[in-house]
Amino acid sequence: MSATHPAAAGPAGPAAPHPGGPHAAPTAPGSPLPVATVPVHLTADLPRGAIWAPGVMGRTWREYGYLFLALLIAPFAFAYAVVAVVLPPSVAITVVGLFVAGWVIVGGRMWAALYRGMARGMLGTSIAAPVPRRRRRGFWRRLGVLLGDAPGWRGVAFGALSLPLAIVGFVVPTAFLAVALGGVTHWFWYRWLPPQEASDGTLHRGASFGTDYFIDTPPRQWILIAVGLLAFLAWHRLTLGFAHLFRLLSTSLLGPTASSMRVAHLEQTRGTAVTDADTRLRRIERDLHDGTQARLVAVAMQIGDARDRLAHEPGADPATVGLLDEAHGALKDTLTELREIARGIHPPALDNGLAVALETLAARCPVPVTVDVDLAAARPAPEVETIAYFAAAELLTNVVRHSGATGAYVRVEADRGTLWLRVRDDGRGGAGLGLPGASGGSGLAGLADRVATVDGELDVDSPAGGPTVVTVHLPLSAR
Amino acid sequence: MRVVIAEDSVILRDGLGALLARRGHEVVAAVGDGDALVREVAALADAGALPDIAVVDVRMPPGFTDEGLRAALTLRETYAGLGVLLFSQYVETRYAAQLFGGDARGVGYLLKDRVADVSDFLDALERIAAGRTVLDPEVVTQLMGAARVDPGITRLTPRESEVLELMAQGRSNGAIADALVLTYGAVEKHVTSIFGKLDLAPDAGDHRRVLAVLRYLRLEA
């Protein structure tokens, strides 16, 4: 019976050691993030028990094969680890060389993947892949991500540790296996051994222990066979034992760390929260539009009609007409206010896309604004479009209120998974993130917070007197 | 006047219908989405009873983007004598550009809130049915604002700017005279001066006038 492989759900079988890792899932192929509630590693229900139990021999041979393979590649892994450790300090003087060192460290992930594959195929243990490398922009940040890649380092460490462990782990069981095979078959081939002289002058053939003890009598052959069988048992136990050591090492070094799983989980739930909030706001705006605003317009129509009819009646009391006039005016003001509130919650123009919404925004701006949107490459997620729209609205408000500019330019483009929004004006500059003011600040800090909820970034380039350029980077999706 | 209403909000649809009926117009059909509108008008046309005007909301099911606009454009292509008044929740210059792209006769674009001004709304209906053009003042304001830096516009006197705005809304000279409390002759003089300053060819037809102004204000489709 071969060990079956639960791919995901379900608790680990009784054979599985559980080093107390958090409950987070292996990465399903193709999905970028783990999902909660499934163990980080799973050991299949491996055959156990006596050596003659079904499947146990097969398992022993498989794990012995693992030890052999581990020994074969151990020198290379060790050499790689040495390079990974020695390279950064030695090329640090050429800063660009550090990138090479960084890639070598990230290459440790490849070793980890290889060992994970071996563990899955031969040790019967599925280990989840670590969280993917985070992308960062900027020279130093990118370098930091490469050099500090924890899964890469752990893969390298595994490779280094595997050398001594593989040597011992293969050599010792093999020695016992050799004794076992030799001892059990000695009775057959001992007659071809060259004769040796004992201390009393007699000639013997056979394995010898010391000068006088030869295994050439039937009782002694039987003893040797028994020893061989015991050695076989020892080989079996030792193989399983060393393989188990490798299993423990694999599960502790090759899977995702607890904190990275937590971070991934938090990112995913935050993305869900942002999307849900956006959907809810859109629904509120839709309800306002379809319900409240429609009703108000209908009422305004009726009051307007009543006022007109009354005004045209011959004996109409001007006071009544005046009252209806006021009521009508108040209703229209309410409608306008409601429309503004709805636009603040979710501008209806956004349903037609960011380009249309930004053009409408620009048209309403007292300062002339040129809008240039190029989203042919990719369509952002709705919640990202909302954030981009309100960012542009906030920035244009700042342009109008603080900059004294005569014109503004808004550019939007999508590139390599990022949405870029740039607002440039030719005003007096001097904008800062924490700028205090009589009106309570420029609002840029609040904008930076909002952008950060989706791991976006806000850059402000505003020298005093010079043009102001504010750039917002947003991922194309909140998840 | 025989009117077709296309509006997905039942409250508004009924309210509009009741208002029009009270003022002596006949609501021959009231539908809730763009396909139904085209179907109903086709059925009426086949029966030889093409309505005079269609009052259409831009944002309708199923997509709630511009279904009404597309239905209106389809109707304009098929039925030359049908006036179309398009309602929009907010100013969308692209819709206006598409609507006025070709022949602007008997076409109007208003904000939904404008319905609350009942006499203006009914007046707009009649102007469209008569083959003239109507454009919401708020749209005109936004377009004028955007064209502010144009030298031609800045050459206009304040009075001429007012006349230009009303012209862009599709008002006749008489209506402009009433609105600004001027004599008809004064309005004509202003109009000639405006066209001169903006280098536009003066023309008798109001709809061509509106088109010229809109093109000047860069309302290109």
Question: What does this protein look like?
Answer:
- The complex is a heterodimer of chains A (479) and B (221).
- Chain A has 479 residues and is of the alpha+beta class.
- Chain A has 3 domains: 41-256, no CATH class; 268-345; 350-475, 2-Layer Sandwich (Heat Shock Protein 90).
- Helix content of chain A is 57%, strand content 10%.
- Chain A has helices at 56-91, 97-123, 139-147, 150-189, 218-253, 258-312, 318-345, 354-363, 382-403, 444-452; strands at residues 41-43, 125-127, 196-197, 203-204, 208-209, 213-214, 369-374, 408-415, 418-425, 457-461, 468-475.
- In chain A, the strands form 4 sheets. In chain A, strands 7-8-9-11-10 form a 5-stranded mixed beta sheet. In chain A, strands 1-2 form a two-stranded antiparallel sheet.
- In chain A, strand 10 (457-461) and strand 11 form a beta hairpin.
- In chain A, helix 1 (56-91) packs antiparallel against helix 2 (97-123).
- Chain A is elongated and about 150 Å long.
- Residues 1-37 and 435-441 of chain A have low confidence and may be disordered.
- In chain B, 52% of the residues lie in helices and 14% in strands.
- By secondary structure, chain B is of the alpha/beta class.
- Chain B has 11 helices and 6 strands.
- In chain B, strand 4 (83-88), helix 4 (93-99) and strand 5 (107-111) form a beta-alpha-beta unit.
- The two termini of chain B are 31 Å apart.
- A 6-stranded parallel beta sheet of chain B has the order 2-1-3-4-5-6, with helices on both faces.
Short description:
With 479 residues, chain A is of the alpha+beta class.
Helix-strand layout with pairing:
The complex is a heterodimer of chains A (479) and B (221).
Chain A (H helix, E strand, L loop, with lengths): L40 E3 L12 H36 L5 H27 L1 E3 L11 H9 L2 H40 L6 E2 L5 E2 L3 E2 L3 E2 L3 H36 L4 H55 L5 H28 L8 H10 L5 E6 L7 H22 L4 E8 L2 E8 L18 H9 L4 E5 L6 E8 L4
Parallel strand pairs in A: 7-8
Antiparallel strand pairs in A: 1-2, 3-4, 5-6, 8-9, 9-11, 10-11
Helix pairs in contact in A: 1-2, 1-4, 1-5, 2-3, 2-4, 2-5, 4-5, 6-7, 8-9, 9-10
Chain B lengths: L1 E5 L3 H13 L3 E6 L2 H13 L6 E5 L9 H12 L4 E6 L4 H7 L7 E5 L6 H12 L3 E3 L1 H10 L4 H4 L3 H11 L4 H8 L3 H14 L8 H11 L5
Parallel strand pairs in B: 1-2, 1-3, 3-4, 4-5, 5-6
